[in-house]
Design a protein that fits this description.
286 residues; alpha/beta; 5-stranded parallel sheet; 9 helices; 15% strand; globular
Length: 286
């Protein structure tokens, strides 16, 4: 079996590869605004497998594949259920040039990639969300020109949003601080990552990200960590507040905070499409 590029976990990337993807995301954004397709997927057939909920990044993958000249087929299968994952990899390899998959388990996607003769892209799992993080970082890079040495504040539990920010901190020199009740702190130490219950640790953040409240938390436990306009007022003038959708107003984010000058969630999420297009191009590069 030939070795293929895969996009599963941002900590597998090199700093140069991440930088390349950020720059290409900007190129794709510019081409999109000019309505000028780069045609990098001409003749490519891409399988889109959605084994979990959500719509933003899978819709963006479908649209991006078509815009770049490829063919996207939604394949109604679920990993790890009726058929052996190795068998699925072989069947999909007959017809497709790459697989984009959104599934609960990262280990299932990794197994699919290990047993596949074609590239596999992780659209999202319950433990990481590399496309979402890459899109946010591409937005910040486009606005500010550099990501080195920045601090990312993540207000959320040990789940997929935090997971991918910790991953990318292993690949590039940025710092991640989780601000949340200790019960939901990330359980393993990794470089350039810290966790605290001190909300004032957010004041130095260049990017501020939120995630949904965990189902097993009470409002009394979590309300002190709600992002309000008073917290945003303490950020630097160049900081970007990017709550992760779906945003639950007056839970993880006060409704008024979404109108704050630092809140750039709509503009940031536009880069999800362009970052994913960069990933699609990258997996086919030699």
């Amino acid at each position: 079996m030939r070795q293929n590029r895969r996009f599963l976990d941002l900590s597998e990337m090199s700093q140069c590869q991440v930088q390349h993807l950020l720059e290409r995301a900007r190129n794709f954004r510019d081409a999109w605004q000019e309505d000028k397709s780069l045609g990098v997927l001409d003749g490519k057939n891409i399988a889109l497998v959605v084994s979990d909920g959500g719509w933003r990044n899978t819709a963006a993958f479908d649209l991006g594949i078509q815009w770049m000249g490829g063919r996207c087929v939604h394949v109604p299968i679920k990993l790890g259920q009726r058929e052996d994952i190795g068998d699925l990899a072989a069947y999909l390899g007959n017809w497709f040039d790459a697989i984009v998959v959104r599934a609960p388990s990262l280990s299932d996607i990794a197994e699919l990639s290990d047993k596949s003769a074609i590239p596999v892209i992780n659209a999202r799992t319950r433990s990481n969300h590399p496309c979402e993080t890459l899109g946010d970082l591409a937005f910040y890079h486009d606005r500010h020109g550099s990501i080195e040495g920045i601090t990312v504040g993540v207000v959320g539990p040990d789940a997929n949003i935090l997971g991918s920010w910790i991953e990318i901190a292993q690949a590039v020199p940025l710092n991640v601080v989780q601000v949340y009740p200790k019960r939901w702190h990330a359980k393993s130490y990794r470089k350039r990552f810290t966790a605290t219950e001190d909300v004032s640790a957010l004041h130095g953040a260049d990017i501020l990200v939120t995630d949904c409240w965990p189902d097993d938390g009470s409002r009394d436990q979590l309300l002190p960590f709600q992002i309000t306009t008073s917290i945003l007022d303490r950020l630097s003038s160049n900081a970007e507040f990017i709550p992760c959708p779906p945003v639950h107003r007056d839970n993880e984010v006060a409704a008024s905070a979404l109108e704050h000058r630092t809140c750039e969630v709509i503009a940031a999420k536009d880069f999800l499409l362009h970052a994913q297009n960069a990933v699609l191009e990258w997996v086919f590069e030699s």
